[in-house]
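DM from R.C. (forwarded with permission)

"hey, sorry to bug you on a friday — could you get me a structure for this? deadline for the figure draft is monday and I only need the backbone to look sensible"
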Amino acid sequence: MDVPMHLKGLMKKLLLLFALMIATLCSAQRLPGNVVPEHYSLKFTPNFSSSSFQGDETIDVRVLSATDAVVLNALELDIKSATVKAGGKELTAKVTADSANETITLHLGSQIAAGEATVHIAYTGELNDKLRGLYRSEANNRRYAVSQFEAVDARVAFPSFDEPSYKATFDITAVVDAGDTAISNGRIVSDDPGPGGKHTIKFSTTPKMSSYLVALTVGDWKCISGEQDGVALRICSVPGKEQQGQFALEATKAILHFYNQYFGIKYPYGKLDQIAAPDFEAGAMENTAAIVYRERALLLDPAKASVDDQKEIASVIAHEMAHQWFGDLVTMKWWNDIWLNEGFATWMESKPVAAWKPEWQISQDDVLGSNAALNTDSTVNTRPIRQQAETRNEINSLFDGIAYGKTAAVLRMIEGYIGPEVFRKGVNSYLEAHKYGNATAEDFWGAMAQVSGRPIDKLMPTFVTQAGAPYVAVTDKCENNDTVGTLTQHRFFSSPKLMQSTSDQVWQVPVCMNEIGGAGTGSCELLGPKEQSFKLKGCGHGIFANAKGSGFYRFSFDPAEYQSPNFKVEELPEEDQVSLVGNEGALLAAGVHHIQDFMALAEKFRGVPTYGAVSELSGQVTFAQRHLVSNQDRAQFEAWVRSVFKPTLEKIGMTPSKSDTPGQLNTRATLVEMLGNIGEDPDAIELAKRTVNAYMQNPESVDATLVDASFPVAAAHGDTTLYDAFLAKTKQKQTSSPQDYYRYVHALYHFRDPALLKRSLEWTLGPDVRNQDMWNMLSVLANPEGQQLGWDFIRQRWGDIQHKAGQSIVGAQFAYYAVGVFCDRTRVKEAQAFIDQHRVQGLDRVARQQMERVDQCIDLRQREEPNLANYLQKAGNGTGQH
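My reply, with the result:
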């Protein structure tokens, strides 16, 4: 399942986290293990008029020890009949349901012996509107059936051994209406008329796989086709949108060819269908050979797509396709190792995309992802990568930024330490040893240790089994034309008080260093104890302790370098620039550095157009504007923003050119949004308005990357007339591209007029917004003019939010994450009271983490607001760095 770490905006960052945690409050209990499946024969007959389906299944099982009962997972299914054949006898089962544990028990009345048996169950279920199990989706005034079974929702579609270790083969049949078709994991092997006005589609037998990877979609799908390395490819959608899959098809070809070379195991499933569903909760789901996506994660109109739009789709496809090997072919034994699936796919997605589109400079996005993961891991209330989970809520809560982002960053660090080719050999050894089976984290890092000859089996557990990340401090001096020094480590916290506390935690940290401005090549040291000495060839003017931003740790950096004329950030590798900016923001939060150090570093980037560094700076400048600047200093801060960042915009040009690189397009867009909404620069505001007006008249007349940034600026400086025009454009969502539609949707939450923001919130709960898109209202919380308004709306309309989402846990999620935007003790008290009133099992850690973030923000503001005011005053008096 996909979590694109590079997506911009609060809604995008939180979208999947919310979606994956939507679940009933039921717990889940593991199956007894005395009966295991070998093969399922499943027949589904959906009935769209009644929003229901009939199911008929036969499961060939092995009974491991004599028993008088068979226990399976099942939830929200009406069992009509159940029989078990064993030892030449057919026994009619009495069925009892345990909804709390999401199981049914087939009581046989007498024992069956160990050996082969066959279970047959006839049942019915609901085509629900909860975006889980086998659910209904709607578009073009008709209905579709779509499956979403990860993590524990195959049991909502068919009684099953719904745990990842119970792999089996599947024969799937769909009985569908005339004019409809079906897509599943296998190829269509027959399509026969009947019964009645329906037709019956049978699919080829799947390889052994876990129940959560079964897929079925039913509707009038239209597909475009292709082929790569002998594998049949299709991109499918609702009618009228199929041509928007051309970009995805080309990306799929490049990615598949790359993976066939990289993994050493050819794509094992013969065909690959990718389906854009009108309603889908997650970004995408890696069902074996039948991946399902949100429309915006697969479909694209090239005339309306920005660089980020293209990156997002290519990266999501690469993520899901990586799972076909790492997750589907080899699957974790239990959900505590889901990080190995998701983190690996997050790490892997960059490789084929970078090979296909080197001009996108994906390595900078990797460092941005590592910075984000380090920020997530800097709180007391973070969690270890590997964490036990038994209940539904506990399992779903593991699909978070730690599983995806931190794991990807740790894998990237290990790859840098042992080398890309050795790392690849370790991956291939692991896959070959466990293909079509299950494996654990120990299996993975054991393979890496064996292939590399390095202690990866000792290194990885220090990052996987304990929470947090290290802070590596460096002291150095020049002796005999060599740099000699000391490395020390302790846990990093975004809190000065905690940074000064003692901790017994240590990591096995591969620290890769370069001497800034030196002639040496740098080196990597494996830091194991609290303190360790090192030596580098050559002497420069300081150590950069995270070369290429490849390490998962924060590092010390002398802020005096920012004042040195010899220190030129543009001479650092671009990945180092991105790492340095992210690290500086973290050191500011931790009290190691101060706001004047950050301002001095930002000024070093005047005229430096590295898009990853500019993106990181933009986020930190935005935070400062919202939380560290007093009202009386706001005008001076805006002037500082213009003085530092407008020269960069002028250097690359205000107007896009055909010769622009993707990096220049992204840098321009980021600067226009920052200068327009943070710097209140009239030229940037005018450019944004002009761009949006041109786009609304003719989308192909302007650069789509600049359009992305221009919409929030135009909205923030727009009026009711513009709002109404944007809202009217959303009505065209059935015929426009997803990128076009969501530009207008997201812009509705960036207006500054409270009355317009209130309209946006009410609209979100109305019939024009799909359930999957209601999370957009969280964007209001990122809008300074809408923060309190959005929070009040969530509290007052909590029941309506729950009703639309169809799950009782949703309102609490909104409340918990809404708290994290505050930096004000008065508002935090009411937020805490609301959370206490609506506390939900499985979200306690989330609540504590959000409250911790608020405390950190308040502490940072108290420490640094006076320093910022003083810095701006000096700058205004001509004594600053401008």
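R.C.: lifesaver. The two ends are 47 Å apart (CA to CA).
me: no worries. The chain has a mean pLDDT of 91.
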